[in-house]
Amino acid sequence: MNIPKRHLLAWAIALAVAPWAHAQSDNTVKIGLILPMTGQQASTGRQIEAAVKLWQAQNGTKAGGKTVEVIIKDDAAVPDTTRRLAQELVVNDKVAVLAGFGITPAAMATAPIATQSKTPMIVMAAATSAITEASPFIVRTSFTLPQATVPIAEWAAKNGIKKAVSLVADYGPGFDAEKYFDSQFRLNGGQMLDKLRTPLRGPDFAPVLQKVRDLSPDALFVFLPSGQGAQFMKQFGERGLDKAGIRLIATGDVTDDDQLNDMGDVALGVVNSHHYSAAHPSAVNKKFVDAFQAANKFRPNFMAVGGYDGMRVIYNALNATKGQGGEALLNAMKGQLFESPRGQVLIDAQTRDIVQDVYIRKVERVNGQLWNVEFDVQKAVKDPGKLK
Ligand code: PHB
User: Fold this and answer.
1) pLDDT digits over 59-93, tens only?
2) What is the rounded average pLDDT of the residues 182-203?
3) Beta bridge pairs of residue 221
4) Ligand 1 mutation target, pool 44, 48, 103, most atoms within 8 A of CB
5) What is the DSSP string of 247-291?
6) Which of 129, 222, 226 has most ligand 1 atoms within 8 Å of CB, for mutation?
7) Does the CB atom of residue 222 touch ligand 1 within 6 A?
8) Distinct helix (H) and strand (E) counts, the chain
9) Distance between CA 301 and CA 169 in Å, rounded?
10) What CA–CA distance (Å, rounded) separates 110 from 49?
11) Ligand 1 mean position to 327 CA, how many Å?
12) Which atom belonging to ligand 1 lies closest to the Cα atom of 256?
């Protein structure tokens, strides 16, 4: 079902007639969780689904006096599908919350539906800065690319890297990473030799890696969405860039905990910055990782933590509103402060975006496994994309 734009107003009016009247008549609150369960972003869906299930296994299915029912839908990371599923979830299922959103275009396509239906929309994965500005009903529990990129750009310039090339996926989060790496690296005295991009779908890294080899920078900075890191790393090694003395630096999306352990020696020593490592040394994280691995037989990555914390934000808000939805529920999400497996986080009440620590990490082998080992931190980083 594809709804033409001109019909959206009629939908908006229909929806304004308090879908909550229905939802409140029974004692269930529904969350419509839209994830890429198939296709190239399927690891994101698998991680978030597992985290949401873990949250409910640990915290029960009741919040604000209601039973919380999660309805999972697979959008295969196709934005038209995301939008259609969101419409159906709001109109037919009368969900109180939309959640998930594996990639930026999926979140952007859904934003107008959240606005028109006054449904809080929790972005658990997508990370382009501008997403939270697309609807006043969006709250983000993942991260932003400017947030993750600025610390590694600064680290690089201050640690002997003078000339760099950037390589990013050719869409929203890649543009953010490219822009914020460029400005922060140059601000700290670095020089950019080139800025390269690969397509979101089915990228071939061979031609760009050849180009990087020819340019011979001190370092290559990379952002690729979760799921592409292992393939990239393999080709980086096969083309001998590591042996040619070109350092690889990245956002933690590339050294993703979902794939890191299978990447092999080529990943060793890669310095990267991100908001979550499964190796984060806190009691809260250890408990999270142990429970997650016991339930799933795979390691949680940053997507899992975005999903887990997203559930916490929803549960906290439902408890505060006693199960009431709409704008009241949204308002109860703003300003939440809690200890996540990643560290202390805040949902900024003005921007509805997440404020969090960003860590500088190095891939190391510990007890036979590869981990992102944190060795430095920038505390309480607000999305630099909002500081314009
Ligand atoms: C996004 O599309 O916003 C996105 C997806 C995967 C990532 C980061 C950002 O790892």
Assistant:
1) 999 999 999 999 999 999 999 999 999 999 999 99
2) 97
3) 166, 249
4) 103
5) EEEEETTTT-TTTGGGS-GGGTT-EEEES--TT--SHHHHHHHHH
6) 226
7) no
8) 12, 15
9) 20
10) 19
11) 27
12) 10
**Considering only CA atoms, which of 112, 109, 107, 87 is closest in space to residue 1?**
87
**pTM metric for this prediction:** 0.94
Pocket test for ligand 1, best of 47, 101, 104, 171 (most atoms within 8 A of CB): 104
**Strand order from edge to edge, sheet including 66-74:** 62-63, 66-74, 28-35, 97-100, 121-123, 138-140
> For residue 372, what are its two tokens?
């992102």
Show the tokens assigned to 279. Answer: 């190796």
Count of CB atoms within 10 A of residue 297's CB? 8
- Could you give the 3-state DSSP secondary structure of residue 377? strand
- Take residue 38 and report the two structure tokens written for it: 């198939």
| Ligand 1 pocket residue status of 173, Cβ below 6 Å | yes
On whether the CB atoms of residues 126 and 142 are closer than 8 A, the answer is yes
